[in-house]
Amino acid sequence: MNNQSDKEILEFLQNTSEEFKILSEGTNMSLQQEYLKLSEEIDPIGYSEEIALEESKKLFDKSSTQEQKKKILIQLANTGSIESYRVLERHLKHDGRLKNWTMFAIQECRMHLGNMIKDENIGMISTGLGGKGNKLRCFIILISKTRKPFSDTQKKIIKQEYDISCKKLNSEGEKIDFQDDYATLTLLTPMDVAVDTVVMDGLKQCNKLGNFIIEYYYVTNVYIPNKAEIDEIVEDMRAETS
């Protein structure tokens, strides 16, 4: 792998954060699973960045098969280099037939770049719920401490405080629903802001005004659970905090 300083990587990620686009319609989960399965089968020790970049020429060769290209895209993603990222970007504009697959590779390459300048592993960015612009969509469940529905005043506080937290942290609150003894939120958060930061900021501010929400929440970016699933999740959350 080439020598990339933390400063170079940070500047690169900052300069690409606004142009990076997440598929707004979400991703095909079976395709995502196929991508992850093939990623596990490819041994990163078996190739270097130089080999991956040389192989990448086949991405723009009409005689290359889709299966060959899928493997090359994963190899480029795993190198976690700025040059590989640029090749992936170029392929995204070149070959629309592998749009989602290339997006997965771009996201993974970006993840590896970010991990080089972070102590923690930031994880895969792909999401079943999609997003908007450079923001990821996530679904959150907050539960009442009293096992009773939130009062009108509490609902107002939740809406108000999450509106403030989202504006402060460059995020967006798309939707808030109140059902039984819990609230569900759909938020859009930028890739450089942890979802936990947004959720806990709003939650703690709400509790300063009444201490009525359990400081333990559920979040997913894969899909929105149905009512029965949410009820089960809420009960599991209560069991974890009892």
Task: Spell out the blueprint of helices and strands.
Elements: H1 6-16, H2 29-41, H3 49-55, H4 66-79, H5 82-94, H6 99-116, E1 131-132, E2 135-143, H7 152-168, E3 172-179, E4 182-190, H8 195-207, E5 218-220, H9 227-241
Antiparallel strand pairs: 1-2, 2-4, 2-5, 3-4
Helix pairs in contact: 1-6, 3-4, 4-5, 4-6, 5-6, 7-8
Could you describe the 3D structure shown?
With 242 residues, the chain is of the alpha+beta class. The protein folds into two domains: 6-116, no CATH class; 131-241, 2-Layer Sandwich (Alpha-Beta Plaits). Helices cover 50% and strands 13% of the residues. It has nine helices and five strands; from the N terminus they run ααααααββαββαβα. The chain has helices spanning 6-16, 29-41, 49-55, 66-79, 82-94, 99-116, 152-168, 195-207, 227-241; strands spanning 131-132, 135-143, 172-179, 182-190, 218-220. Strands 1, 2, 3, 4 and 5 form a five-stranded antiparallel β-sheet that branches. Strand 1 (131-132) and strand 2 form a beta hairpin. The protein is elongated. The termini are far apart.
Question: How is this structure best summarized?
Answer:
This protein has 242 residues and is of the alpha+beta class. 50% of the residues lie in helices and 13% in strands. Mean pLDDT is 82; it is low at 118-126.
